[in-house]
Amino acid sequence: MSLRVGVIGTGMIGRDHIRRMRTVQAGVSVVAVADVDGELAARVAAGIGAVAHPDGRELIASPGVDAVVVCSWGGTHEEYVLAAIAAGKPVFCEKPLATSQQACLRIMAAEAGHGSRLVQVGYMRRYDAAYRALKQVLDSGVIGAPLMMHCAHRNAGVPDFYQPDNIITDTAVHEIDLVRWMFGSEIVRVRVLRPRASRNAGELPDPLLLVLELANEVLVDVELSVNVRYGYDIRGEILGEDGTVSLGDPGLVAVRRAGQVGGPVPADWRDRFGAAYDVELRDWAASAAGSGPPDGPGAWDGYAAAVVSEAAVRALRTGEPVTVTLVDRPKLYD
Ligand code: NAD
Ligand code: ISE
Protein backbone atom coordinates (compact mmCIF):
# COMPACT_ATOMS: atom_id res chain seq x y z
CA MET A 1 0.00 0.00 0.00
CA SER A 2 1.31 3.44 -0.75
CA LEU A 3 2.25 5.98 1.92
CA ARG A 4 -0.60 8.48 2.30
CA VAL A 5 0.92 11.94 2.70
CA GLY A 6 -0.73 15.20 3.75
CA VAL A 7 0.92 18.49 2.74
CA ILE A 8 0.47 21.66 4.82
CA GLY A 9 1.28 24.83 2.86
CA THR A 10 0.56 24.77 -0.86
CA GLY A 11 2.75 27.71 -1.87
CA MET A 12 5.86 27.53 -4.05
CA ILE A 13 7.75 24.65 -2.46
CA GLY A 14 4.61 22.89 -1.24
CA ARG A 15 3.35 22.57 -4.82
CA ASP A 16 6.81 21.58 -6.05
CA HIS A 17 7.03 18.79 -3.43
CA ILE A 18 3.49 17.65 -4.32
CA ARG A 19 4.53 17.44 -7.98
CA ARG A 20 7.62 15.37 -7.17
CA MET A 21 5.75 13.04 -4.80
CA ARG A 22 3.17 12.44 -7.54
CA THR A 23 5.38 12.22 -10.60
CA VAL A 24 8.91 11.29 -9.50
CA GLN A 25 8.33 9.04 -6.50
CA ALA A 26 6.79 5.58 -6.38
CA GLY A 27 4.82 4.33 -3.38
CA VAL A 28 3.53 7.74 -2.27
CA SER A 29 0.09 9.33 -2.68
CA VAL A 30 -0.67 12.90 -1.73
CA VAL A 31 -4.13 12.44 -0.22
CA ALA A 32 -4.66 15.70 1.66
CA VAL A 33 -3.59 19.35 1.65
CA ALA A 34 -4.18 22.38 3.87
CA ASP A 35 -3.35 26.06 3.57
CA VAL A 36 -4.53 29.19 5.40
CA ASP A 37 -5.45 30.33 1.93
CA GLY A 38 -8.46 28.01 1.66
CA GLU A 39 -9.10 28.80 -2.01
CA LEU A 40 -5.56 27.89 -2.94
CA ALA A 41 -5.77 24.62 -0.97
CA ALA A 42 -9.09 23.77 -2.64
CA ARG A 43 -7.63 24.47 -6.10
CA VAL A 44 -4.53 22.37 -5.46
CA ALA A 45 -6.62 19.54 -3.95
CA ALA A 46 -9.01 19.54 -6.91
CA GLY A 47 -6.09 19.29 -9.33
CA ILE A 48 -4.76 16.11 -7.72
CA GLY A 49 -7.89 14.44 -6.34
CA ALA A 50 -6.96 15.09 -2.70
CA VAL A 51 -8.99 16.33 0.27
CA ALA A 52 -8.55 20.00 1.27
CA HIS A 53 -8.64 20.44 5.05
CA PRO A 54 -9.53 23.87 6.44
CA ASP A 55 -6.80 23.52 9.04
CA GLY A 56 -3.37 21.85 9.21
CA ARG A 57 -4.10 20.27 12.59
CA GLU A 58 -7.19 18.57 11.20
CA LEU A 59 -5.08 17.19 8.34
CA ILE A 60 -2.55 15.78 10.83
CA ALA A 61 -5.31 14.16 12.91
CA SER A 62 -7.00 12.58 9.87
CA PRO A 63 -6.85 8.75 10.02
CA GLY A 64 -6.38 8.80 6.24
CA VAL A 65 -2.99 10.53 6.55
CA ASP A 66 0.06 8.41 7.43
CA ALA A 67 2.78 11.08 7.23
CA VAL A 68 2.98 14.87 7.00
CA VAL A 69 4.99 17.34 4.90
CA VAL A 70 5.09 20.90 6.32
CA CYS A 71 5.70 23.65 3.74
CA SER A 72 3.98 26.61 5.40
CA TRP A 73 5.82 29.74 6.60
CA GLY A 74 8.61 29.16 9.10
CA GLY A 75 6.73 30.71 12.05
CA THR A 76 4.02 28.05 11.76
CA HIS A 77 6.31 24.99 11.67
CA GLU A 78 6.54 24.38 15.42
CA GLU A 79 2.79 23.99 15.88
CA TYR A 80 2.47 21.45 13.06
CA VAL A 81 5.61 19.47 13.91
CA LEU A 82 4.49 19.17 17.56
CA ALA A 83 1.02 18.05 16.44
CA ALA A 84 2.54 15.40 14.13
CA ILE A 85 4.75 14.09 16.94
CA ALA A 86 1.75 13.99 19.30
CA ALA A 87 -0.10 11.94 16.66
CA GLY A 88 2.95 9.65 16.28
CA LYS A 89 3.24 10.46 12.54
CA PRO A 90 6.51 10.96 10.63
CA VAL A 91 6.91 14.58 9.57
CA PHE A 92 9.10 16.19 6.94
CA CYS A 93 9.41 19.89 7.78
CA GLU A 94 10.82 22.40 5.32
CA LYS A 95 13.58 24.57 6.76
CA PRO A 96 13.76 26.17 9.24
CA LEU A 97 12.55 23.62 11.80
CA ALA A 98 11.26 26.57 13.83
CA THR A 99 12.07 30.24 14.19
CA SER A 100 13.60 30.14 17.70
CA GLN A 101 15.92 27.83 19.59
CA GLN A 102 13.31 27.51 22.37
CA ALA A 103 10.77 26.20 19.86
CA CYS A 104 13.34 23.66 18.59
CA LEU A 105 14.02 22.54 22.18
CA ARG A 106 10.27 21.96 22.64
CA ILE A 107 10.25 19.84 19.49
CA MET A 108 13.26 17.79 20.69
CA ALA A 109 11.57 17.28 24.07
CA ALA A 110 8.40 16.07 22.36
CA GLU A 111 10.39 13.68 20.16
CA ALA A 112 12.26 12.37 23.20
CA GLY A 113 8.87 11.79 24.87
CA HIS A 114 7.78 9.80 21.82
CA GLY A 115 10.96 7.73 22.14
CA SER A 116 12.16 7.61 18.51
CA ARG A 117 12.88 10.00 15.66
CA LEU A 118 9.89 11.23 13.68
CA VAL A 119 11.20 14.55 12.34
CA GLN A 120 13.26 15.31 9.24
CA VAL A 121 14.18 18.88 8.28
CA GLY A 122 14.43 20.01 4.64
CA TYR A 123 18.16 20.72 4.43
CA MET A 124 18.38 19.29 0.92
CA ARG A 125 21.99 20.20 0.18
CA ARG A 126 23.04 17.06 2.06
CA TYR A 127 21.37 15.15 -0.82
CA ASP A 128 22.95 17.13 -3.66
CA ALA A 129 25.26 15.03 -5.85
CA ALA A 130 27.91 17.77 -6.06
CA TYR A 131 28.06 18.41 -2.30
CA ARG A 132 28.16 14.64 -1.69
CA ALA A 133 31.08 14.33 -4.10
CA LEU A 134 32.82 17.21 -2.31
CA LYS A 135 32.39 15.44 1.02
CA GLN A 136 33.61 12.15 -0.43
CA VAL A 137 36.86 13.80 -1.57
CA LEU A 138 37.26 15.53 1.80
CA ASP A 139 36.61 12.31 3.74
CA SER A 140 39.02 10.33 1.52
CA GLY A 141 41.86 12.45 2.91
CA VAL A 142 43.44 13.24 -0.49
CA ILE A 143 43.45 17.00 0.13
CA GLY A 144 44.67 16.54 3.70
CA ALA A 145 43.15 18.06 6.81
CA PRO A 146 40.62 20.83 6.01
CA LEU A 147 41.59 24.37 6.92
CA MET A 148 39.01 26.68 5.34
CA MET A 149 35.91 26.68 3.17
CA HIS A 150 34.80 29.50 0.88
CA CYS A 151 31.10 29.59 0.01
CA ALA A 152 28.88 31.86 -2.05
CA HIS A 153 25.08 31.81 -1.90
CA ARG A 154 23.69 34.07 -4.57
CA ASN A 155 20.00 34.52 -5.39
CA ALA A 156 18.76 36.32 -8.49
CA GLY A 157 16.28 38.04 -6.17
CA VAL A 158 14.25 37.32 -3.04
CA PRO A 159 10.56 37.67 -2.09
CA ASP A 160 9.24 41.08 -1.00
CA PHE A 161 8.88 39.97 2.65
CA TYR A 162 12.67 39.74 3.01
CA GLN A 163 14.06 41.82 5.91
CA PRO A 164 17.77 41.91 6.82
CA ASP A 165 17.40 38.96 9.25
CA ASN A 166 15.96 36.75 6.48
CA ILE A 167 19.31 36.82 4.68
CA ILE A 168 20.55 34.79 7.66
CA THR A 169 17.48 32.81 8.74
CA ASP A 170 16.19 31.86 5.27
CA THR A 171 19.28 31.99 3.06
CA ALA A 172 22.51 31.47 5.08
CA VAL A 173 20.81 28.78 7.15
CA HIS A 174 21.56 26.33 4.31
CA GLU A 175 25.33 26.87 4.65
CA ILE A 176 24.98 26.79 8.44
CA ASP A 177 23.55 23.28 8.19
CA LEU A 178 25.82 22.26 5.33
CA VAL A 179 29.14 22.97 7.03
CA ARG A 180 28.13 21.19 10.26
CA TRP A 181 27.44 18.11 8.09
CA MET A 182 30.44 18.57 5.80
CA PHE A 183 33.00 18.83 8.62
CA GLY A 184 31.18 16.87 11.36
CA SER A 185 31.86 19.73 13.74
CA GLU A 186 29.67 22.31 15.45
CA ILE A 187 29.86 26.06 14.80
CA VAL A 188 31.20 27.85 17.88
CA ARG A 189 31.44 31.52 16.85
CA VAL A 190 30.00 33.74 14.13
CA ARG A 191 30.55 37.20 12.78
CA VAL A 192 28.92 39.15 9.96
CA LEU A 193 30.66 41.82 7.88
CA ARG A 194 28.80 44.36 5.74
CA PRO A 195 30.50 45.47 2.54
CA ARG A 196 29.13 48.32 0.42
CA ALA A 197 25.47 47.61 -0.37
CA SER A 198 24.48 46.72 -3.94
CA ARG A 199 22.35 49.26 -5.80
CA ASN A 200 20.07 46.30 -6.66
CA ALA A 201 19.40 45.55 -2.99
CA GLY A 202 16.79 48.17 -2.07
CA GLU A 203 16.77 48.56 1.72
CA LEU A 204 18.54 45.26 2.38
CA PRO A 205 22.13 45.07 3.65
CA ASP A 206 23.16 43.02 0.65
CA PRO A 207 25.73 41.50 0.18
CA LEU A 208 26.89 40.20 3.57
CA LEU A 209 29.92 38.16 4.54
CA LEU A 210 29.22 35.55 7.21
CA VAL A 211 32.22 34.01 8.98
CA LEU A 212 31.71 30.73 10.84
CA GLU A 213 34.29 29.28 13.24
CA LEU A 214 33.97 25.53 13.82
CA ALA A 215 34.96 23.58 16.92
CA ASN A 216 37.64 21.77 14.84
CA GLU A 217 39.16 25.20 13.97
CA VAL A 218 38.05 25.15 10.33
CA LEU A 219 37.05 28.68 9.26
CA VAL A 220 34.21 29.17 6.76
CA ASP A 221 33.33 32.35 4.88
CA VAL A 222 29.97 32.69 3.16
CA GLU A 223 29.20 35.46 0.70
CA LEU A 224 25.46 36.12 0.81
CA SER A 225 24.17 38.09 -2.16
CA VAL A 226 20.43 37.94 -2.65
CA ASN A 227 19.88 40.30 -5.58
CA VAL A 228 22.50 39.38 -8.15
CA ARG A 229 19.95 39.37 -11.00
CA TYR A 230 21.98 37.02 -13.23
CA GLY A 231 20.73 33.74 -11.71
CA TYR A 232 21.08 31.36 -8.77
CA ASP A 233 24.73 30.70 -8.10
CA ILE A 234 25.93 28.36 -5.34
CA ARG A 235 29.65 27.90 -4.82
CA GLY A 236 31.90 26.06 -2.44
CA GLU A 237 35.62 25.38 -2.21
CA ILE A 238 37.51 23.62 0.60
CA LEU A 239 41.17 24.32 1.22
CA GLY A 240 43.03 21.37 2.74
CA GLU A 241 46.65 21.01 3.79
CA ASP A 242 47.53 19.21 0.54
CA GLY A 243 45.03 20.51 -2.02
CA THR A 244 41.59 21.92 -2.66
CA VAL A 245 38.22 20.59 -3.77
CA SER A 246 35.40 22.70 -5.16
CA LEU A 247 31.89 22.29 -6.52
CA GLY A 248 31.95 21.90 -10.31
CA ASP A 249 29.96 24.06 -12.69
CA PRO A 250 26.31 22.89 -12.51
CA GLY A 251 25.77 23.69 -16.21
CA LEU A 252 25.58 20.51 -18.30
CA VAL A 253 26.84 22.16 -21.45
CA ALA A 254 29.27 24.87 -22.51
CA VAL A 255 28.39 26.92 -25.59
CA ARG A 256 31.21 28.36 -27.69
CA ARG A 257 30.18 30.98 -30.21
CA ALA A 258 31.09 34.41 -31.46
CA GLY A 259 34.47 34.25 -29.72
CA GLN A 260 32.97 33.47 -26.33
CA VAL A 261 32.34 30.47 -24.10
CA GLY A 262 29.32 30.25 -21.80
CA GLY A 263 26.49 28.18 -20.45
CA PRO A 264 23.23 28.42 -18.53
CA VAL A 265 23.09 29.59 -14.89
CA PRO A 266 20.25 27.99 -12.85
CA ALA A 267 17.29 30.35 -12.39
CA ASP A 268 16.50 29.48 -8.76
CA TRP A 269 16.68 26.82 -6.07
CA ARG A 270 14.17 24.58 -7.88
CA ASP A 271 16.43 24.55 -10.92
CA ARG A 272 19.73 24.05 -9.03
CA PHE A 273 18.60 21.58 -6.35
CA GLY A 274 15.72 19.76 -8.11
CA ALA A 275 17.47 16.39 -8.04
CA ALA A 276 18.50 16.86 -4.38
CA TYR A 277 14.87 17.48 -3.34
CA ASP A 278 13.89 14.32 -5.25
CA VAL A 279 16.38 12.15 -3.33
CA GLU A 280 15.62 13.85 -0.01
CA LEU A 281 11.87 13.19 -0.23
CA ARG A 282 12.36 9.68 -1.66
CA ASP A 283 14.54 8.69 1.32
CA TRP A 284 12.19 10.36 3.79
CA ALA A 285 9.13 8.61 2.32
CA ALA A 286 10.91 5.24 2.46
CA SER A 287 11.66 5.77 6.13
CA ALA A 288 8.11 7.01 6.83
CA ALA A 289 6.77 3.89 5.09
CA GLY A 290 8.67 1.73 7.56
CA SER A 291 12.25 1.24 6.32
CA GLY A 292 13.60 2.70 9.62
CA PRO A 293 14.08 6.04 11.35
CA PRO A 294 14.94 8.96 9.05
CA ASP A 295 18.70 9.30 8.60
CA GLY A 296 18.53 12.82 7.13
CA PRO A 297 18.85 16.05 9.12
CA GLY A 298 16.69 15.82 12.23
CA ALA A 299 15.44 17.95 15.07
CA TRP A 300 18.93 18.25 16.56
CA ASP A 301 20.20 19.71 13.28
CA GLY A 302 17.20 22.04 13.13
CA TYR A 303 17.99 23.16 16.67
CA ALA A 304 21.71 23.73 15.99
CA ALA A 305 20.87 25.73 12.86
CA ALA A 306 18.41 27.85 14.86
CA VAL A 307 20.98 28.63 17.56
CA VAL A 308 23.62 29.60 15.00
CA SER A 309 21.07 31.66 13.04
CA GLU A 310 20.12 33.58 16.19
CA ALA A 311 23.79 34.23 16.91
CA ALA A 312 24.37 35.43 13.34
CA VAL A 313 21.35 37.75 13.47
CA ARG A 314 22.82 39.26 16.64
CA ALA A 315 26.22 39.56 14.94
CA LEU A 316 24.56 41.31 11.98
CA ARG A 317 22.76 43.77 14.25
CA THR A 318 25.69 44.53 16.56
CA GLY A 319 28.68 44.12 14.25
CA GLU A 320 30.30 42.03 17.03
CA PRO A 321 31.39 38.36 17.00
CA VAL A 322 28.90 36.15 18.84
CA THR A 323 29.66 32.87 20.61
CA VAL A 324 27.36 29.91 19.96
CA THR A 325 26.30 27.72 22.89
CA LEU A 326 24.37 24.49 22.35
CA VAL A 327 22.75 22.24 24.96
CA ASP A 328 24.22 18.72 25.25
CA ARG A 329 23.07 16.58 22.35
CA PRO A 330 20.35 14.15 23.51
CA LYS A 331 21.19 10.44 23.00
CA LEU A 332 18.33 10.10 20.47
CA TYR A 333 20.46 12.05 17.96
CA ASP A 334 23.77 10.14 18.38
P1 NAD B 1 5.13 30.47 0.01
O1 NAD B 1 4.74 31.76 0.64
O2 NAD B 1 5.16 30.36 -1.48
O3 NAD B 1 4.14 29.32 0.53
C1 NAD B 1 3.81 29.14 1.88
C2 NAD B 1 2.35 28.71 1.97
O4 NAD B 1 2.04 28.44 3.34
C3 NAD B 1 1.38 29.83 1.51
O5 NAD B 1 0.49 29.29 0.54
C4 NAD B 1 0.65 30.24 2.79
O6 NAD B 1 -0.70 30.62 2.58
C5 NAD B 1 0.74 28.94 3.61
N1 NAD B 1 0.59 29.12 5.04
C6 NAD B 1 1.06 30.13 5.81
N2 NAD B 1 0.73 29.95 7.10
C7 NAD B 1 0.03 28.78 7.16
C8 NAD B 1 -0.57 28.05 8.21
N3 NAD B 1 -0.55 28.47 9.49
N4 NAD B 1 -1.17 26.88 7.90
C9 NAD B 1 -1.22 26.44 6.62
N5 NAD B 1 -0.66 27.10 5.58
C10 NAD B 1 -0.05 28.25 5.85
O7 NAD B 1 6.52 30.06 0.66
P2 NAD B 1 7.56 28.98 0.13
O8 NAD B 1 8.63 29.64 -0.66
O9 NAD B 1 6.85 27.81 -0.45
O10 NAD B 1 8.25 28.56 1.52
C11 NAD B 1 7.59 27.72 2.45
C12 NAD B 1 8.63 27.11 3.39
O11 NAD B 1 9.57 26.37 2.62
C13 NAD B 1 9.44 28.14 4.20
O12 NAD B 1 9.70 27.62 5.47
C14 NAD B 1 10.73 28.27 3.39
O13 NAD B 1 11.84 28.64 4.19
C15 NAD B 1 10.89 26.87 2.86
N6 NAD B 1 11.67 26.82 1.58
C16 NAD B 1 12.68 25.95 1.47
C17 NAD B 1 13.44 25.93 0.33
C18 NAD B 1 14.60 25.00 0.22
O14 NAD B 1 15.46 25.25 -0.61
N7 NAD B 1 14.66 23.95 1.02
C19 NAD B 1 13.12 26.77 -0.74
C20 NAD B 1 12.04 27.62 -0.61
C21 NAD B 1 11.30 27.65 0.56
C1 ISE C 1 14.75 30.02 0.05
O1 ISE C 1 13.78 30.01 1.10
C2 ISE C 1 15.54 28.77 0.07
O2 ISE C 1 15.50 27.99 0.97
C3 ISE C 1 16.57 28.70 -0.98
O3 ISE C 1 17.21 27.45 -0.99
C4 ISE C 1 17.56 29.82 -0.71
O4 ISE C 1 18.57 29.82 -1.69
C5 ISE C 1 16.86 31.16 -0.73
O5 ISE C 1 17.79 32.17 -0.39
C6 ISE C 1 15.71 31.19 0.26
O6 ISE C 1 15.01 32.41 0.11
From TrEMBL:
Residues 3-123 form the Gfo/Idh/MocA-like oxidoreductase N-terminal domain. Its EC number is 1.1.1.18. It holds the Pfam family GFO_IDH_MocA. Residues 135-324 form the Gfo/Idh/MocA-like oxidoreductase C-terminal domain. The keyword NAD applies. It comes from the Bacteria. It is an enzyme of class 1 (oxidoreductase). Keywords: NAD, Oxidoreductase. It catalyses: myo-inositol + NAD(+) = scyllo-inosose + NADH + H(+). Belongs to the Gfo/Idh/MocA family. PANTHER family: INOSITOL 2-DEHYDROGENASE, PTHR43593. Homotetramer. Involved in the oxidation of myo-inositol (MI) to 2-keto-myo-inositol (2KMI or 2-inosose). This is Inositol 2-dehydrogenase. It comes from Actinoplanes ianthinogenes.
